[in-house]
Amino acid sequence: MAALGAYRCIECNREAAELYRDYQRGVLRISICASSAEAYPRPLVLCIPSCSRFAFSELTFFSSCICCVVQVPLQETGGLLLLKKNLKKSCQKPVDKYIEYDPVIILINAILCKAQAYRHILFNTKINIHGKLCIFCLLCEAYLRWLQLQDSSQNIDPDDLIRYAKEWDFYRMFGIASLEQTSFLVGIFITLWWMGPEMLKTKSDFILLLKALLLSSYGKLLLIPAVIWEHDYTPLCLLFIKVFVLISNSQAIRVTLNLNRTLPWLAIFFGLILENGVVCFFQKMGWDV
After folding, report:
1. Burial of residue 165 (number of CB atoms within 10 Å: 0-12, 13-18, 19+)
2. For the chain, how many helices (H) and strands (E)?
3. pLDDT tens-digit readout, 152-183
């Protein structure tokens, strides 16, 4: 059995020790989201000096509260053991129903921005393609900008068959797209840290949020089909893609940090402000951004 907190329940976002239990011979059973009492089968004491909730103990001198992570001397509780049934109950639903779903169904639910699908992808899978996905999305955005730049210039030699390899403007567009993406992410991190430092207090929290933001930007892959199948509504399609990516980013922040709907949008708003501010700054310096 994995350690508690290795996975998350996609319904209530509680930590879970396992997604399923293997009974051999191909018999699997999806785990049910259990209460904290089942996760901590040790004697319980009351966290009196802090949150007045329950702490677990092995009858040592100190116990750790499972709610506020405060060490509680047992002498202040008198060694009082409390019944486990007093703990708050969990949702009692399957920890992760998506482990038996087809990947296409999971992708559709992710496109619909369902929180359960996001929790499955971020917490209960070992997907490590966020770096490659980020590079590919930046290439797509750079290609779109480079193509628009080529459309605006009419001095292209049609006999130059390898002009795509010689177009340094494409690499410049890639650098600009990378700069804007970095500014956007920095703005989000600064806003979230400023409004709640406890949300990003460890390095793993930063890494998880960065991974979530990069994975949720997969909508930028739609830029290529929108350009290939060019029509009169292409600018409108590009606007819809931009809005979809921002909605996905908001849902990723909300699921990762377990927030309400307002704070993620506020962080995205400041991220966009910083992104446009950096672009305006370099334009005033005379750079062709």
Report:
1. exposed
2. 11, 8
3. 555 555 555 455 555 778 888 899 999 999 99
CA-to-CA distance for 228 and 230, rounded, in angstroms?
5
Q: Give the number of other CB atoms < 10 A from CB of residue 38.
A: 13
Q: How many residues does the chain have?
A: 289
Beta-bridged to residue 56, according to DSSP, are 44, 64
In 3D space, the residue among 276, 273, 219 whose CA is nearest the CA of residue 242 turns out to be 219
- Residues 140-156 as b/e (b if ≥16 CB within 10 A, e otherwise) read bbbbbbbeeeeeeeeee
Two tokens, residue 167: 């177009």
pLDDT in tens, 216-252: 999 998 888 887 777 777 788 889 999 999 999 999 9
Using an 8 Å Cβ cutoff, are 249 and 217 in contact? yes
Q: Is the dihedral of CA 82, 83, 89, 94 positive or negative?
A: positive
Identify the CA nearest to 72 among candidates 87, 53, 90.
Answer: 53
214, burial (CB in 10 Å: exposed 0-12, middle 13-18, buried 19+): buried
Distance CA 184, CA 278 (A): 10
- CA distances for 141 relative to 166, 170, 213, 236, 241, angstroms: 19, 10, 16, 16, 11
pLDDT at 255: 92
The dihedrals phi and psi of 35, each to the nearest 5 degrees, come to: -75, 170
DSSP 1-24: -PPTTSEE-TTT--EES-SEEE-S
Query: H or E element: which one contains 29?
Result: strand 28-30
Angle between helices 234-257 and 115-123 (to 10 degrees): 70
- Per-residue pLDDT at 79: 41
pTM of the model as a whole:
0.72
